[in-house]
Amino acid sequence: MRNVARAPGRSTGLLLPRSPGSGPGPPPLLLVLVVLLGGAGAQYSSDLCSWKGSGLTREAHSKEVEQVYLRCSAGSVEWLYPAGALIVNLRPNTFSPARHLTVCIKLFRDSSGANIYLEKTGELTLLVQDQSSEPSQVQCFSLEQGGLFVEATPQQDISRRTTGFQYELMSGHRGLDLHVLSAPCRPCSDTEVLLAICTSDFVVRGSIQDVMHAPERQESVIHLRVNRIHRQKSRVFQPAPDGDGHWLGHVTTLLECGVRPGRGDFLFTGHMHFGEARLGCAPRFSDFQRMYRDAVERGLNPCEISIE
User: Which DSSP category does 51 fall into?
Assistant: First the structure.
């Protein structure tokens, strides 16, 4: 969470994707090249948004890689009985250069049986290790950094293994959103706050009612009491049962940010990711009023919003 009260001594940010500190690295580059160039007999599966397949359809000891082509802004990949490897080719259903695209992935809760790498020109960078200790962690990267290479890990019994993840593609105008996911504990600059009020899925004024920590998911759930909704999607905030004109709802952020309730009103912004409201910039409302008035005086406010 950003610009909101935090416990002292916490880390100020998180950079994604992280390089693995330990554990098995990618296979030798020569083997990777052999696999990537595995021949014309590779299986091909395509769909608009999601793919579901099985490693049981592969021939034993085959080094061919199955190509998966998805042309959608959001969807999922589910690989039953993983064996061998997949290359997942992600593109939006509208033209947009790769340098303007960001990909975020989130593993299914019980995903296992494969490592997920970024692949570019035959080189692999480990993105998510099999049976990661943080399965719900969202990983984001620019499409320019490479595509997704999913390689099954050796298993004595693959019958109970399923590798799966959700994905989302974002265009360049949501670059700030990538930064929020990558460094959610660092306070936003004035420019980032002003941009967030123009591009976020929700922008509300309110206060923190309670914070619930979920160590098993490495997340904090922040319960908000909202007195003004400037914008929202997916009805994150619902009218309070007491009918006093307020709205109630919750947003999530990383546990490591150490969020705790803070007095006073804040301007909360953020985006919907994988069906959840993820917190972005959240300055105190008095600070937001100051920066917005200053931007208006200089003609630098990117959009208009009420500050009363």
Answer: E
